[in-house]
Each structure stands twice: as structure tokens, then as C-alpha cells.
Automatic annotation (TrEMBL):
Record protein name field: Uncharacterized protein
Stored Pfam families: CAP (PF00188)
PANTHER family assigned: CYSTEINE-RICH SECRETORY PROTEIN-RELATED
InterPro entries tied to this protein: CAP_dom, CAP_sf, CRISP-related
Domain of life of the native organism: Eukaryota
Length: 137
């Protein structure tokens, strides 16, 4: 179950980037270590909270929220609404990513953290970094 959630989170990231013509992300072991440390912290505290750092972009999910988050972001996209989690995933200038995952001690939640460099969602850079989907025929 845990591995499937991570695979879903990562494959969703790569699929969205491809649909928008963005280059694939490269795995970064430092980002993965830091993402894992934050996932460990979230699981220990049993909260879903962003870390405080401007050096990287960050997306969070729990095992219970992944499917709903995907549906919600898809709906927002269809309404032409820019969701910051979504735009970080497809941010064209982002080139590296690392992911971490951890169970809460009670076993009821799985926390997944994605970290991205360079960070996306930079004010004034959305037009050149958030491409429209590639038309499919």
C-alpha cells in the first residue's frame, strides 16, 4: 500500500509534466533525504504542514488525500484555475526532485513529501514556466 501511494504520487508528477511538454525531472538524493526527514517529522506530529524554506518547492500528500487531491487539481485545471501544488509539479524550470514517505505511529496515515529544485511558483514567472497542455489528437 505504501509503495503504491509513492508510485502514484511520483507517476502523477511525471505524467503531468509530460502532458505539459516539460522535461522529465532528475532524481536528487539530497532532496530525497530531506523529503524523507520531513515526512518522518510529519508522521511523528500527525499533521500535514509545509516546511519553511525558499530554496525548494514542496508538495505534500497523505494516503487518504491522494485521490481527492488529484481529482480536485484536475477540476481546478479544467476551470483554468492555477493551483500552486499543480503548478509546482509542471514548473518548466524545475529540474530535480526527491520524495519521502512515512507511516504515522498509529498506522492510520501515510505522509508523502515531494521536494523540487529550483523552486517553482515564482511571482512574475508563471507565463514562461507553466505551459498549457500539449494538444492530443
Amino acid at each position: 500500500m505504501i509503495i503504491m501511494n509513492v508510485i502514484l504520487f511520483i507517476s502523477y508528477t511525471f505524467r503531468l509534466r509530460a502532458l505539459h511538454g516539460c522535461p522529465p525531472l532528475k532524481y536528487d538524493s539530497r532532496l530525497a533525504r530531506e523529503a524523507q526527514a520531513w515526512a518522518d517529522n510529519l508522521a511523528r506530529m500527525k499533521i500535514l504542514k509545509h516546511s519553511i524554506c525558499d530554496e525548494y518547492g514542496e508538495n505534500l500528500a497523505t494516503s487518504q488525500s491522494i485521490g481527492k487531491a488529484e481529482l480536485t487539481e484536475r477540476k481546478m485545471l479544467s476551470l483554468n484555475y492555477l493551483n500552486c501544488h499543480f503548478t509546482q509539479v509542471i514548473w518548466k524550470n524545475t529540474s530535480k526532485a526527491g520524495f519521502g514517505i512515512q507511516h504515522s505511529n498509529d498506522g492510520h496515515h501515510v505522509y508523502i513529501v515531494g521536494r523540487y529544485e529550483p523552486a517553482g511558483n515564482i511571482y512574475g514567472q508563471f507565463q514562461e514556466n507553466v505551459p498549457r497542455p500539449i494538444p492530443t489528437f
